[in-house]
């Protein structure tokens, strides 16, 4: 009689399968989210929305109007208390807002008042066929972040 070998999987075979599943999951996630550029796009849009909310909160808390400035050509933004940031050069930046709130030529501005209201505006960030919009309501100063529809990008 020959001794029978126990059936099953070796540790090496299990590790190989787990590794392949991890690689496939990573590739699928990158494909579904637009890859690295999509992550930059969402991250930048969320950061700008966060800083707009911060600017509104500062206006309410200090009792002084506060201005958020965005310079689409320089791919930069500035908020109260020396907060500033850069937008990746690979993203297209578009600003629509009140001309009266402009800090200087070429730069857009959204002014928040002490009651939370604002001059309103829209900042759109785009990478290829994907875009995110950050809207600021003029009456309430509410900041909303939304994905732009492909039809509106044409």
Features:
single chain; 33% helix; four-stranded antiparallel beta sheet; 2 helices; 29% strand; alpha+beta; 8 strands; 154 residues
Please tell me about this protein's structure:
The chain is built from two helices and eight strands, in the order H-H-E-E-E-E-E-E-E-E. Helix 1 packs across helix 2. The radius of gyration is 24 Å and the shape is elongated. The N and C termini lie far apart (76 Å). The model has no long low-confidence stretch (mean pLDDT 88).
Q: Main β-sheet, in a few words?
A: 4 strands, antiparallel
Structural class of the secondary structure composition? alpha+beta
Beta-strand content:
25-35%
Oligomer: single chain
| Shape category | elongated
Order of helices and strands: HHEEEEEEEE
What's the helical proportion of residues?
25-40%
Summed up, the helix count is: 2
- What is the CA-CA span between the terminal residues? 76 Å
Average pLDDT:
88
Low-confidence stretches: none
User: Taking Cα atoms only, what radius of gyration do you get, to the nearest Å?
Assistant: 24 Å
Strand order, largest beta sheet: 3-2-1-5
Strand element count: 8
